[in-house]
Amino acid sequence: MLTVDFSRFPLAAGDRVLDLGCGAGRHAFECYRRGARVVALDRNAEEIREVARWFAAMKAEGEAPEGATATAMEGDALNLPFPDESFDVVIISEVMEHIPDDKGVLAEMVRVLRPGGRIAVTVPRYGPEKICWALSDAYHEVEGGHIRIYKADELLARIEEAGLVPYGTHHAHALHSPYWWLKCAFGVDNDKALPVKAYHQLLVWDIMKKPLATRLAEQALNPLIGKSFVAYATKPQLPATESEPATDTATTTETGAKA
After folding, report:
1. Residue 160: which domain range?
2. Spatial separation of the C-alpha atoms in residues 14 and 140, rounded to whole Å
3. Which of 72, 137, 150, 154 would disulfide-bridge 52, Cβ 3.0–4.6 Å?
4. What is the pTM assigned to this prediction?
């Protein structure tokens, strides 16, 4: 289940991609299938080992095109082990709501992103998340849990303050909001409650079968109760430096552009 919409966030074969806080690796796997050179980074060693196993299995099954590469590694989002401008694309999905120093994380992402590169940020949406918090303290008051709820304009302001230029937003996973409301109402660890169990089965069926009826329903409901808010931005191109050689006929400069 992807939160980033790759029709709005296109990848080219050979793009250098960082999936920051990759978790189980869903976006990293999709980028690998699309021919990217992927680094999946997370501080959870167990999840990184599992992601590495899946990368190896995908390679063995020929799921990634020739030239694509994939690496899974442990790392700290506030101290990324990469040189400046190492990546063409950075994805951070459902991570920033966990990290106290979200400005520091954005600064590190901007540092490792090349000028002209693209970034995708996804976080829980304010309205559905607020309901979860109201229904259950256990939903968010856990070690490593959600420490903030972003409003859309607040997240976009953070992105702009970091020096990025937003170019698009949308909401995703409307059908998942009622599931989490049920989880919070019946107990976040109570998967046996009949409403929770039944709705989970519906979601699994929807993910596996992708029926047109539920696809259309989710598309219609996403603006209203989409569980995730997704923002896309670019890092501005650098202007030509004074040290670059000039010609007798013209001076060439680079200008920023939105993807």
Report:
1. 76-172+227-234
2. 38
3. 72
4. 0.89
